[in-house]
Write a structure and sequence with these properties.
By secondary structure, this protein is an all-alpha fold. Helix content is about 90%, strand content about 0%. The radius of gyration is 27 Å and the shape is flat. The protein starts with a helix and ends with a helix.
């Protein structure tokens, strides 16, 4: 076999190999982007539920503080819980927008960019929700006591509210300090972020990362 023929056959084999790799990459991309979309479906379906719950709580606490306009501790408690309920709605709407706007026909890097936005929102949302969980107990005590006994707990047992509020502030402070401490370790910080974003987003990102790994090989 002459050298020119050998080179020609070798080049033909290279072209076939390149076409094969390109085809495999395209098939993998289609499969993994479809899997990424499926991973986010459960999260998307939960958002209308959160919106309905947030709307119901918003109406409930709005009626509560309006009905107790003459008693400022009850008004403040009702307004605080009202604001948290509105936050539930905003959180769900933002998450829905971030998921729906992802174009799975776009290049992988574009999908990854939108997933990164969703990931950042999830981390921020989790932290604010954690703060709300710690700060809500004093207001819930006030509202619960009024609804169950018709008493203004602040006028009957103010120390119970004060101590609960102190515990809430301490809980927020300790959580913040723990989060700062966790950032000193890259592994622990990554584990914390994975906990914040949840299984759906982590799985979606893993699917797209597999495409990058194949393309680099």
């Amino acid at each position: 076999m002459e050298l020119d023929e050998f080179k020609q056959q070798w080049q033909e084999m290279d072209r076939k190999l390149d076409r094969s790799i390109a085809l495999n990459l395209r098939l993998l991309t289609e499969k993994r982007t479809r899997w990424t979309k499926l991973r986010l479906v459960p999260m998307l379906l939960l958002q209308p539920v959160q919106i309905v719950i947030g709307l119901a709580l918003t109406i409930f606490f709005a009626r509560f503080w309006i009905a107790n306009l003459g008693t400022w501790p009850l008004v403040i408690s009702g307004l605080f819980l009202h604001a948290l309920s509105v936050g539930l709605i905003i959180d769900a709407v933002m998450r829905t927008v971030l998921i729906v706007r992802i174009n799975y026909a776009a290049p992988v890097v574009t999908i990854q960019r939108y997933l990164a936005l969703l990931r950042r929102w999830e981390i921020r949302s989790f932290k604010w929700a954690w703060v709300a969980v710690w700060l809500a107990p004093p207001a819930l005590l006030m509202v619960g006591a009024k609804l169950s006994t018709t008493l203004n707990l602040w006028s009957v047992a103010p120390n119970a509210i004060i101590y609960t509020a102190i515990g809430s502030v301490v809980g927020v402070g300790l959580s913040y300090l723990f989060d700062l401490w966790a950032r000193h370790s890259s592994r622990l910080g990554a584990a914390m972020d994975s906990m914040y974003v949840g299984y759906s987003i982590a799985g979606a990102q893993a699917s797209l990362d597999e495409i990058d790994e194949f393309a680099r090989e």
